């Protein structure tokens, strides 16, 4: 891989300190750097400045510098161009952006010398309906969240699997997530941890006002439908990957299923999922020794 795009969250990389380091290292290793015009102008050396949409179509791979939010934003653009991505963590937790600052040089050497693998992650296709009218369509890598609006009112939703009634949840809402999203909002709401290369869909209620409520898992081939109770008099929100939001009302339905597309992730190290989990969550980034 020689032609590499760089997308930077300027709020995370003050003065583009790490962007300069990454771009300079790629050029040093004989690579070609593509960057958006605004970011390219911050560098003291020349890189190819393009519109951001052009970067995804012309790059062999894209590096994003920031946190997991930055990664999700880039992923939602990269999948349409079928270009693989790698995240460099400039945030706090950085579960998706798994390359730490100290590992940048080694990661870039692996990429430029074609010592990497590509891992595909399933995405979720979402369609929002008002009766039979399509209100919106979107794609998520992590999750689709149906939640109450600004007023602190219990939101009543009904869930269906392949149009068969599954359960009704009164509470703050519901999360429909992919395996990749199992370690995001779903985890905070009490959902299960799932290995990211599986093909399943996770449904997790948010603060359910009911004693026996539990998250559940269904096959990726199923259609998950969430219906906002018709008697709900207030607006609710559908949030896709924390990036896009859509207002919904009583009677609206949200259909979620496995998308026909996927996100391609660049892997430069054979890191075990559970080792990453211990480091990122249980020990919050602290070093630890593997147990035998």
Automatic annotation (TrEMBL):
UniProt keyword Ribonucleoprotein present: no
Catalytic activity: NAD(+) + ATP = ADP + NADP(+) + H(+)
Active-site residues, Swiss-Prot/TrEMBL: 68
The keyword Cell membrane is annotated on this UniProt entry: no
Residue sites binding NAD(+) per the record: 68-69, 73, 142-143, 153, 172, 183-188, 243
Alphabetically ordered keywords of this record: ATP-binding, Cytoplasm, Kinase, NAD, NADP, Nucleotide-binding, Transferase
Residues in the signal sequence: none
A UniProt-annotated Pfam family: NAD_kinase_C
Cellular compartment(s): Cytoplasm
Principal location class: cytoplasm
GO molecular function terms noted in the UniProt entry: ATP binding; metal ion binding; NAD binding; NAD+ kinase activity
EC number: 2.7.1.23
Top-rank lineage group of the source organism: Bacteria
A single Gene Ontology CC term: cytoplasm
Required cofactor(s): a divalent metal cation
GO biological process, one term: NADP+ biosynthetic process
Broad enzyme group: transferase
Family to which this protein belongs: Belongs to the NAD kinase family.
Record-linked PANTHER family: NAD KINASE
Known role: Involved in the regulation of the intracellular balance of NAD and NADP, and is a key enzyme in the biosynthesis of NADP. Catalyzes specifically the phosphorylation on 2'-hydroxyl of the adenosine moiety of NAD to yield NADP.
Official protein name in the record: NAD kinase
Species, as recorded: Pseudobacteroides cellulosolvens ATCC 35603 = DSM 2933
């Amino acid at each position: 891989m020689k032609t590499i795009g760089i997308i930077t969250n300027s709020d995370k990389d003050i003065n583009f300190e790490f962007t300069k380091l990454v771009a300079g290292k790629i050029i040093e290793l004989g690579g070609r750097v593509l960057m958006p015009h605004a970011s390219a102008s911050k560098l003291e050396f020349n890189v190819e400045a393009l519109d951001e949409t052009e970067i995804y179509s012309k790059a062999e791979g894209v590096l994003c510098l920031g946190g997991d939010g930055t990664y999700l934003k880039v992923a939602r653009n990269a999948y349409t161009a079928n270009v693989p991505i790698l995240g460099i963590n400039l945030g706090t937790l950085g579960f998706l952006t798994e390359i730490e600052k100290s590992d940048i040089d080694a990661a870039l050497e692996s990429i430029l010398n074609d010592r990497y693998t590509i891992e595909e992650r399933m995405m979720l296709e979402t369609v929002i309906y008002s009766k039979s009218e399509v209100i919106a369509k979107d794609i998520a890598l992590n999750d689709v969240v149906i939640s109450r609006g600004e007023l602190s009112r219990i939101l009543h939703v009904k869930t269906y699997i392949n149009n068969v009634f599954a359960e009704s949840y009164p509470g703050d809402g519901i999360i429909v997530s992919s395996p990749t999203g199992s370690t995001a909002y779903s985890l905070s709401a009490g959902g299960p941890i799932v290995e990211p290369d599986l093909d399943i869909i996770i449904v997790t209620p948010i603060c359910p006002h009911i004693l026996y409520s539990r998250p559940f898992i269904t096959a990726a081939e199923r259609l998950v439908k969430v219906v906002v109770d018709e008697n709900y008099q207030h607006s609710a929100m559908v949030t896709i990957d924390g990036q896009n939001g859509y207002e919904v009302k009583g009677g609206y339905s949200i259909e979620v299923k496995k998308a026909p597309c996927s996100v391609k992730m660049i892997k430069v190290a054979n890191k075990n999922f559970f080792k990453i989990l211990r480091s990122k969550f249980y020990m919050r980034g602290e070093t630890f020794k593997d147990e035998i």
